[in-house]
Amino acid sequence: MHFAMLWRRLVSMISENRYTHFARVNRNLWIILLVTCWFGSSSLAVLTTKALFSGAALRLPRFPFGLTLTATNNVVASLLAAIVSDGTRDHDVNSNVVQIASVIGAATAVEIGLSNIALNLLTVSFSTVLKGMAPFFVLGWGLALKMHSLHFGTVLSLLAMVVGLSLVVAGQGEDASPVPSRFFQAGLLAQMLSAVFSGFRWMLTQIFIKGEPILNERIKALLMLRPLSRGLSAVETVKLVSPFTCFWVLPFALFLEGTSVFAWVHGASFEEGVKLLVVLITIGVSVYVLLWSEYELVRLTSSLTVSAGFVLKEVLTVFAGGVIFRDRLSFLTYAGFIIVQGGVLVYGVQRHKTLEERIPTELTSDDNRV
């Protein structure tokens, strides 16, 4: 009798361990696939956008209208999300959800606008370094809202990423046209504020997607919002947030770029118009995949992890660009690349220890999410 009970308990433990191990493997493979989609769609969107801005590679007149492009990207992303979700209305979408989506969209619009201003006032290299500070602001917002705890390993890994990114861009050399000193402070302020809004946006996005009542209670007083009853899927998040991003960006796009865009369209031939439409749709589809993979990664990990991955993505883009285009990579570039990898490794080890304790609970809760 006792032997039978022990045998059943042993079989049950083995089955549970096998299921947990299988679930962990599936989870890790899914995260790897998402990161691949994230990096790939980001590279495609950036390269196509640069080609569109210059015009020469696409045999089109220059189309340097960043705000207009942001608006069209979010329109395409919204339409794709509506199609993928089969046009069904989410049963739990209420005024509270719409309000949070509006705030995230507004923060995204401000982040993009300030980043574009900074890019016009600063060198590309220095702007990239400042963007690499985003994880610190994500961590800062997380500490302020008590969503993250401060660990020495986390700070050390983020600091290593920023130092490594600085060395990578320093190894690429300065831009050909120096920035006038009188614009430097304005550009620096704009990029830092952009990083602040980026951190705030990612914190809200994590709350929006995960929907934990405890986390939502901590921002209840800040935004006067009610806690969400459940988290939203990545597709739902794109479908709700992208229209609001377009809504907040569109007035500025019309005011600052409307006349120039109208003149471009009026002076373009039919062939150029069709080619522009194809390019805009291509970038929009890439942005949809980018947003979806980002939101899904936030759901599976955290906003801090995704922002740390952003630094790695920037470094890999610089490094891969040097290899593919056979640019001369300096010692600083290689040193920075190694330091960033070390920072990512430290962060990954600490994150893995945390997940080892939380995965069984998260796997159960994920099954109940849409």
UniProtKB/TrEMBL annotation:
Chain ranges of the Sugar phosphate transporter domain: 31-347
Coiled-coil features, chain-numbered ranges: none
Top-level division of the source organism's lineage: Eukaryota
Organism taxonomic ancestry: Eukaryota, Rhodophyta, Florideophyceae, Rhodymeniophycidae, Gracilariales
Entry GO terms, CC: membrane
Membrane protein topology class: Multi-pass membrane protein
Transmembrane domains' residue ranges: 65-85, 97-118, 124-145, 152-171, 183-204, 247-267, 273-292, 304-325, 331-349
Name under which the protein is recorded: Putative sugar phosphate/phosphate translocator
Subcellular location: Membrane
Sorted UniProt keywords: Membrane, Transmembrane, Transmembrane helix
InterPro entries, per database record: EmrE-like, Sugar_P_trans_dom, TPT_transporter
